[in-house]
Amino acid sequence: MLQASFPRWPEVETDVTPIDHLRWKLAAAPDPEKTHVVAEAEGHIVGCHLSLVREYLAGGAVTVRTDIDVAVAPEWRGRGVNGAQTKLSIETSPATFVLTTTDNPSLVRADHYRGHRPLRNRLISTSCDLTQAVHTSGTRVDSIASFDARTETMWTKAAEPYEFIAAPSAAWLNWRYCDLRGGNGFVLQAEQGCEVLGFVAARISRGKGYIAYLLALPERSNVVQALTASCLARFQEAGLREAVCALPGHHPYRGLLTEQGFSQNRRRIPLTTRPGYPGDPERPSLRKPNAAVHIMLGDTDLI
Ligand SMILES: CC(C)(COP(=O)(O)OP(=O)(O)OC[C@H]1O[C@@H](n2cnc3c(N)ncnc32)[C@H](O)[C@@H]1OP(=O)(O)O)[C@@H](O)C(=O)NCCC(=O)NCCS
């Protein structure tokens, strides 16, 4: 059904079969609760509304639902199937906040009607020509096979300047970036003694290298630079010609990426949020163009 619904599914390139990718996505995710919805008719699955639930920090812990694969089989569209499965998903989800990245006009209309509003500090994609030289730096960066509690400690400190950022979870990171069923890539971490200073999680898909997630201790721009440079060098070694990274338009790493050769390619990724329940605070500061949000492609299902 997913493959009949999208021009290509999965969108990310993997070395595993699509069903193994789906099992990774749905069964292996360390979700506190699974709230996937499917629509059945005449003995077949004709639609699905798949979403992941994850804790974020937004002036306190917030349970956020991110819709991932929302689809209805072509012959069943326009009859309210998605309306019904979305309603059930909302009713059964434990989330108090919803984050979506869709540009499907029908879903955008329906989301707007349900109260979704854009984050004005939206994700903007930047790309880097990998045929140019990469400027490496002195900070040591190593490849890691899995995350541990030290990354969570770093994350807790790194999250302080942001008013909306995912909560630290080594289990979530290991599922997202260290399981080959999710896609090909690598993780690089900067350490000093036993302390983790930052990490970058990279994806390689359809001939491009993606910086899926990048996070470093506050005020450690040298660490961001070192992680980015090492990541670009690894992309070059893999024979890639272009690297892509999406960051909020207003973000402390944006200038650092420009220094490394990234330039804005103006692809704006829609990002809307809405409080999940009546009475949940609207968080108006999140709507400001310069809101301190840390969201990257790895937080979405886009890569
Ligand atoms: C987007 C998608 C999930 C919508 O599914 P759907 O079941 O057709 O959705 P609905 O039927 O609930 O709503 C679709 C439209 O039909 C209308 N509709 C719903 N019930 C209706 C009915 N009984 N009679 C007439 N129209 C109806 C809705 O108002 C809506 O109108 P709009 O698009 O003008 O706003 C489906 O088109 C799809 O799978 N697209 C491809 C995959 C994709 O792009 N997914 C989104 C990205 S993750």
Please tag this protein with its features:
303 residues; alpha+beta; Aminopeptidase; seven-stranded mixed sheet; globular; binds coenzyme A
Strand content: 25-35%
Class by alpha and beta content: alpha+beta
Poorly predicted residue ranges: none
Number of strands: 15
CATH superfamily of the largest domain: Gcn5-related N-acetyltransferase (GNAT)
The CATH topology name of the largest domain reads Aminopeptidase
List strands and helices in order, with pairings.
Layout: H1 2-5, H2 18-27, E1 37-41, E2 44-57, E3 61-72, H3 81-92, E4 97-100, H4 105-113, E5 117-118, E6 123-129, E7 141-144, H5 149-158, E8 164-166, H6 170-177, E9 184-192, E10 195-205, E11 208-216, H7 221-237, E12 242-248, H8 253-259, E13 262-269, E14 272-275, E15 293-294
Parallel strand pairs: 3-4, 8-15, 11-12
Antiparallel strand pairs: 1-2, 2-3, 2-8, 4-14, 5-14, 6-12, 6-13, 7-9, 9-10, 10-11
The site of coenzyme A has 18 residues, from strand 3, helix 3 and helix 4.
Protein model, in words:
This protein is an alpha+beta fold. The protein folds into two domains: 2-120 and 271-281, Gcn5-related N-acetyltransferase (GNAT) (Aminopeptidase), CATH 3.40.630; 123-269 and 294-299, Gcn5-related N-acetyltransferase (GNAT) (Aminopeptidase), CATH 3.40.630. The chain has eight helices and 15 strands. Strands 1, 2, 3, 4, 5, 8, 14 and 15 form an eight-stranded mixed beta sheet that branches. Strands 7-9-10-11-12-6-13 form a seven-stranded mixed beta sheet. Strand 10 (195-205) and strand 11 (208-216) form a beta hairpin. It is globular and about 60 Å long. It binds coenzyme A. Residues 5-6, 69-72, 77-83, 102, 104, 106-107, 109 line the site of coenzyme A.
